[in-house]
Amino acid sequence: MTNQDLLYHYFSNSLTAEQEVVFKKLLETDAEFKAAFEYENSLKKAIKSHESDVLKSKLQEFELELNSKKTHAFNYRYLAVAASIVLLVSWFGYNTFFGTNYSNLYQDNFIEYPNTVYTITRGDDDETLEREAFVAYETQNFETAIEKFDAVSETGAQDYIPFYKAQAYLGLENTHQANVLLKQIVAENTSDFVAESIWYLALIAIKEKDKAQAKTYLNNLISNYNYNQAKAKTLLEELN
């Protein structure tokens, strides 16, 4: 994979865990790569800022025109102008200009964590509950995955099971149950997935429009862990 491919996958939020390691290493060691990343990131912000200025200008023109008229009579021309404003808001995104677009931030950054703990191969005759759970997880059959993870827990589960169970809940958009599990992982601080849990807790807070909580989680991640640091810093900039 080329450096340009890595940048593309970063900004489309599709880096794998292995690619993310390479990405972070290049940011730290390759000045040219870092410069390309900063250029792309600045360009993204500039486009967003330009779109904001365009819409604000249109809204100001519309307001001035309305204020210049002394009559309140219905006017089809005003309706056409208003419709144009609505189209602009729809095109650029209402929250982009009138507040944080929490939904877009969540969707742009959320992706189910890949199965990195249990290898599944064809012809494998292992019929354990754990294998069945991860087969269901990898095929996005999240309800079955949760049932199997629950069954595994009853037989003495590995410490990564709660994390993947939380991921399955997120796949079903059940952020409440996922939140409970992820907070427990962070509180116990014995799993290999503490940093990852903090990242997903931040995303849940964003989805629930809790900016203060999201920023707390992101700052914790940046200060204490290496996982998704670049993305966490970008998200903080979006929330500020």
Question: What count of helical segments does DSSP give?
Answer: 13
- What CATH calls the topology of the largest domain is Serine Threonine Protein Phosphatase 5, Tetratricopeptide repeat
- Cα separation of the termini: 33 Å
Any idea how many domains? 2
Uncertain parts: 93-98
Oligomeric state of the chains in view: single chain
Shape: globular
Q: Quickly give the structural class.
A: mainly alpha
Number of strands: 0
**CATH homologous superfamily grouping of the largest domain:** Tetratricopeptide repeat domain
Write structural notes for this entry:
The chain has helices at residues 3-11, 17-29, 31-67, 76-92, 94-98, 102-109, 129-138, 142-154, 161-171, 175-188, 194-207, 211-224, 229-239. It is an all-alpha fold. It has two domains: 3-96; 129-239, Alpha Horseshoe (Serine Threonine Protein Phosphatase 5, Tetratricopeptide repeat), CATH 1.25.40.10. Helix 6 runs antiparallel to helix 11 (194-207). The longest helix has 37 residues, at 31-67. It is globular. Mean pLDDT is 81; it is low at 93-98. It comes from Bizionia echini. Pfam families: TPR_6 (PF13174). This is Tetratricopeptide repeat-containing protein. The chain crosses the membrane at residues 76-94.
